[in-house]
Amino acid sequence: MKPATLNDGRHTPAQIWNSAPQLAQIPTISPSLLVPAGSRVVVVAPHPGDEVLACGGLLQLLSALDHPLKLISITDGSASHPGSNQWSAQRLSVFRPQESVEALRRLGLPLHSLKWIRGGFCDNDLAAREQLLSPFIARYLQPGDVVFTTWRNDGNADHDAVGRATAIACALTGARLLELPIWAWHRPAREAGRMPWQCARKVRLDTWSVARKRHAAHAYASQLLGDPLIGLAPMLPPVLLERMREPYEIVFL
């Protein structure tokens, strides 16, 4: 998870997620139509926790439908607090995977059968390693997979690079690609026209799914705490946690 520019003061109070009229017009789609029966679900997350922010509710629904699940964590998120002694890269390389295990447990996912691949790439540098990402991701895909990853225009360099690389990997293997916006929702309302609304579909979530998703996000203690000693704000700011109250998730087909 990366803070993009949510904490730099340039964003207006009206952001896409709470102001765009197009949100109410997005067609709904059921998980069973989004992912055919028997298909394996693969989530490619740039950083630990992106799978919760992007599709924590959808993962619960697909797990309940008995779809096999695979999570590919491209990085271990150890560079999320640059310059911090409290949250050093060495500490985070151990701590953040532990947070992920707890978050997945809070979602109610079957940890005993979940296949989890950790890529070990360095975060904040994925665009420079994009040519390596596609073959790495493709190694774990197969025809018929339905693959969820961050939107290639999400607005965060790592998210964008993983989105592009996953698109290539899916084209190479015959898997189906579905993209998920995370930080894009927090752009100023005037940028709503950049969203591919025609490709968007809305997956409805019930109250319990939303509650479990929010509970899972709070497993990332390192991301809820910045480092005041160096003026580093939390990676998960309140405005992002507030958006997670919405009773739906958006997928770009």
Automatic annotation (TrEMBL):
This is PIG-L family deacetylase. PANTHER family: BLR3841 PROTEIN, N-ACETYLGLUCOSAMINYL-PHOSPHATIDYLINOSITOL DE-N-ACETYLASE-RELATED. Pfam families: PIG-L. It comes from Pseudomonas proteolytica. Signal peptide: none annotated. The lineage of its organism: Bacteria, Pseudomonadati, Pseudomonadota, Gammaproteobacteria, Pseudomonadales. InterPro entries: GlcNAc_PI_deacetylase-related (IPR003737), LmbE-like_dom_sf (IPR024078). It comes from the Bacteria. One of its GO terms (molecular function) is hydrolase activity, acting on carbon-nitrogen (but not peptide) bonds, in linear amides.
